[in-house]
Amino acid sequence: MLKSIFLQNFRSYKKDDFEFSENSTLIVGPNTAGKSNLLEAIFLISTGKSNRAGIDPQMIHFGKEIGRVKAQVDDLELEVVLTNGNLGGNKSQYKKFLINGVAKRRVDFEGNLPAVLFSPQDLDIIVDSPTLRREFLNNVLEQVDRDYRIANISFVKALRQRNALLENAHDSGTKNPKHFEYWDNQVIENGQIITKKREEFIEFVNSSLKDIFEFEISYDKSEISQLRLLQYEREELAAGVTLVGPHRDDFSLLMKNHDLHDVRYFGSRGQQRLAILQLKSLELEYVEKVLGKKPLLILDDIFSELDSSHIKLILEQIGKQQTIISTTHKEFVSAKYLKKMKVIKL
Ligand SMILES: Nc1ncnc2c1ncn2[C@@H]1O[C@H](COP(=O)(O)OP(=O)(O)OP(=O)(O)O)[C@@H](O)[C@H]1O
Ligand SMILES: [Mg+2]
Fold first, then answer.
1. What DSSP line would sit under 39-50, residue for residue?
2. Is residue 120 within 6 Å of ligand 1 at its C-beta?
3. Does the CB atom of residue 273 touch ligand 1 within 6 A?
4. 35 Cα: distance to centroid of ligand 1 (angstroms)
């Protein structure tokens, strides 16, 4: 449970702290009050990364060099320190993670406050580029699985090395297999772990009951193996980048009307919203299934986008786990639910 959070030079906050209810907390404030910033800070404590910053230093208050978020989660003190890079230099030094004051790696920091965040921008998962869909899969699986986090870090690193080798080979016109051996094995080994775990999650979604919106996921996976790398050898040399692997994965949501139709191309805006709401709700179920406990639910300003029947559906969900909700108008929440919530006015 998230008990409290302290923000220092984080986004619009200079120095502030907030305490949360063990049930539901409603954060109310007009546009630009700092609602999404506060929820971003919670997400940062949960995952070790931002849900929206392009680069981490964007989270530091304008003109400052260091930002800090500290949270009390059960009896742990979780802390992320952000620096603008002027202090250290390379990107890995932008963030520091501490648990009870002891420095940790991100793989060990994440997982102490499992959380599912839902915001209107999540619609982009359906309508935008494959990158966002892969990020979604990563977000879900990194939350629950340390092996996935490790595999993903190793894969990204190996991929970068392998692509650098391919680029050289492309420029020089010759490929030295000896140089590739180690990195080939690294991308294959870690890539296969990622694919397998993504498959498991997608399989879970497809076999789960969907009471909000009916769809199935079609996983367009780019499998990686020794054989596949061999098959693509010439194309890879020509392109100078790795052409197979989970970094090329995609998926689509197919709605079952008439036949199977991609929500992205055939769904109305409303259907797309319901599909993403359903997907997020299954994310919550998945995290709960794997970890055996309910994650923190974070809802950023979603009521303005939904009709009253779906707002009600969400409000019913809220009582089942610790929930933090932001809204511009508390009128979205009916009195029956409101009286059970702690309200923070910004
Ligand atoms: N690094 C930063 N330093 C200082 N202020 C920032 C920084 N990043 C963003 N802000 C500002 O923080 C303010 C609050 O942003 P936030 O997204 O939290 O608002 P909000 O309450 O969610 O508003 P809305 O209802 O419009 O979504 C904005 O005015 C934004 O420009
Ligand atoms: Mg906002």
1. HHHHHHHHHSS-
2. no
3. no
4. 8
- Contact call for residues 25 and 325 (beta carbons, < 8 A): yes
Q: Tens-of-pLDDT digits for all 346 residues of the chain?
A: 999 999 999 999 999 999 999 999 999 999 999 999 999 999 999 999 999 877 899 999 999 999 999 999 999 999 999 998 765 555 557 899 999 999 999 999 999 999 999 998 999 999 999 999 999 999 999 999 999 999 999 999 999 999 999 999 999 988 888 999 999 999 999 999 999 999 999 999 999 999 889 999 999 999 999 999 999 999 999 999 999 999 999 999 999 877 899 999 999 988 998 999 999 999 999 999 999 999 999 999 988 878 888 888 888 888 889 999 999 998 888 888 899 999 999 9
Contacts of 23 (CB under 8 A, 6+ apart): 319, 322, 323, 340, 341, 342
The CB of 40 under 6 Å from ligand 1? The reply is: no
Q: Enumerate domains of the chain plus CATH numbers.
A: 1-114+293-346 (3.40.50.300), 123-292 (1.20.1050.90)
